[in-house]
Write a structure and sequence with these properties.
The protein has about 450 residues and is an all-alpha fold. Helix content is about 75%, strand content about 0%. It contains 21 helices and no strands. The chain has helices spanning about 5-25, 30-45, 50-85, 85-95, 100-115, 120-135, 140-155, 165-170, 175-200, 215-220, 230-250, 260-265, 270-280, 295-320, 325-330, 340-355, 360-370, 375, 380-395, 405-410, 415-445. Helix 3 (about 50-85) packs parallel to helix 13. The longest helix is centred in the first third of the chain and has 36 residues, at about 50-85.
């Protein structure tokens, strides 16, 4: 198999080719991502049988993780829109924060939601509110999607109990409580940077929310919109259940190891939580529209098909990339340089950009860096915490075509691929840079 600089050159050609084929020749991302998977596999001399099996397992693996979540989230979103519940939520939020703060509200919502909830699931769950707020506040969906996405991403990569930061803290022997506290601190400027990027860059691209039904049509049809409590329930309940599962899985085992933990592990699994959300959403359907419930759920499933296909193809590409010895290629070059906190950041950044999966980049980088902690002079409690966060910052940089989150954000927000690169990829680059700058400033005082 190809190694060293040639390996990275092949990956770069594949990534650039993917952008070019989708943006310039308007080829469908599903086809292009699969072509890129074959291209990388063949150019790196992977056995043909392994190429096919890896593509299939990568496609099925990512859909196994978030496929039902995407379908369930799309069904909930369809029902919330058809019944006017999404408008009720938008009206409620805008009465509290004002139209001018709609994007900031979604950034803050994402920041809080992604502490216990995986960013992919969080974006799917919150997408109906995001779209309704964009419609009511007359703000481009590009702005709102970038604000929500960056808010979710800020805590996803830096704050336990998301799996990546927890795994890193364990590998590097960092104090988990301190990782949480410092991670929350570092993620604040990261979230703020994402918000300002959304306002500045997202506003250049006008994406209309395009609701199927207008407010006037809904009011004429139903007489009144659903209550705020019933409207928010299909979204808030899943988030609460997933949050309790995260707490139950904490290393300190706050709920013990018995029935209570098992209950929250089951009910708080995103699949179970979103299915419960569907049933709550169905209670919003007026009696006179009950015969349409089957049709509305069918619409949600149909609408999710394209998202599933593209996300699965992105998973296939990511699986091919994870089979490459990228970490070994890095170890021959970067690991000999002692550049402090920049070292774990750069390794994680290169792995994230090449492979697409933030959590995988975190786990591999922390394993590579662990034996070097003493040599790097990172043996103190705060030093270990800052190394964990530096890896987290690198794992943010950047989200693009080989990352399933990139496709979740773009497809749920009606972004074409070119716009998604400017919004989603651009904002994750800015967030990663702001994160490592903040971490290095802390290092000047605490290391």
């Amino acid at each position: 198999m190809t190694s060293g600089i040639g390996l990275f050159l092949i990956v770069i050609i594949a990534i650039v080719g993917t952008i070019f084929l989708i943006s310039k020749f308007k080829m469908h991302p599903f086809i292009v991502l699969l072509l890129a998977s074959y291209f990388i596999g063949l150019c790196t001399k992977m056995p043909v049988e392994d190429i096919i099996s890896t593509i299939k397992s990568g496609f099925g693996g990512i859909l196994g993780n978030i496929g039902i979540v995407i379908i369930a989230g799309t069904i909930i979103g369809t029902i919330l829109e058809k019944t006017g519940a999404a408008l009720t939520m938008a009206n409620t939020i805008l009465r509290l924060v004002g139209k001018k703060r709609a994007a900031l509200t979604m950034s803050l919502t994402g920041y809080v939601a992604s502490i216990p909830v995986f960013c992919d699931s969080g974006f799917v769950i919150l997408s109906p509110i995001n779209r309704a707020l964009a419609e009511k506040s007359k703000v481009s969906l590009a702005v709102m999607a970038t604000a929500l996405s960056s808010g979710l991403y800020a805590t996803h990569c830096l704050v336990p109990p998301t799996p990546g930061p927890i795994a890193m803290a364990g590998t590097l022997g960092a104090n988990l409580g301190l990782v949480i506290l410092v991670g929350l601190l570092v993620s604040i400027p990261v979230m703020i940077a994402g918000y300002f990027y959304a306002i500045k860059v997202g506003s250049r691209y006008q994406i209309d929310p395009n609701p199927d039904t207008t407010v006037e049509e809904l009011m004429e049809k139903y007489g009144q919109l659903p209550s705020a409590f019933k409207s928010f329930a299909p979204i808030i309940l899943p988030i609460i259940l997933i949050a309790f599962k995260s707490i139950a899985d904490f290393p300190s085992a706050p709920f013990g190891q018995g029935v209570i933990k098992s209950f929250f592990d089951f009910m708080g699994n995103p699949v179970t939580a979103l299915i419960l959300g569907i049933f709550l959403a169905m209670t919003l359907i007026p009696k006179k529209e009950k015969e349409n419930s089957f049709k509305w759920i069918g619409n949600g499933i149909v609408n999710s098909a394209s998202i599933l296909a593209i996300t699965g193809a992105g998973g296939a590409l990511g699986a091919i990339l994870r089979e490459l010895p990228l970490a070994d290629a890095l170890s021959d070059s970067l690991l000999k340089y002692n550049i402090g906190l920049l070292l774990p950041f750069i390794i994680a950044m290169l792995l994230k950009t090449a492979m697409g999966a933030s959590t995988v980049a975190m786990i591999i980088t922390s394993a590579m860096v662990a034996p070097l902690m003493a040599e790097m002079g990172m043996t103190g409690e705060m030093a270990k915490v800052l190394v964990v966060l530096a890896i987290g910052a690198g794992s943010m940089t950047v989200s693009h075509a080989n990352d399933s989150y990139f496709w979740v954000v773009s497809q749920f927000s009606d972004m074409d691929t070119s716009t998604a690169y400017k919004c989603q990829t651009g904002v994750t680059l800015v967030q990663g840079i702001i994160a490592i700058i903040t971490i290095m400033l802390l290092g000047l005082f605490f290391i």
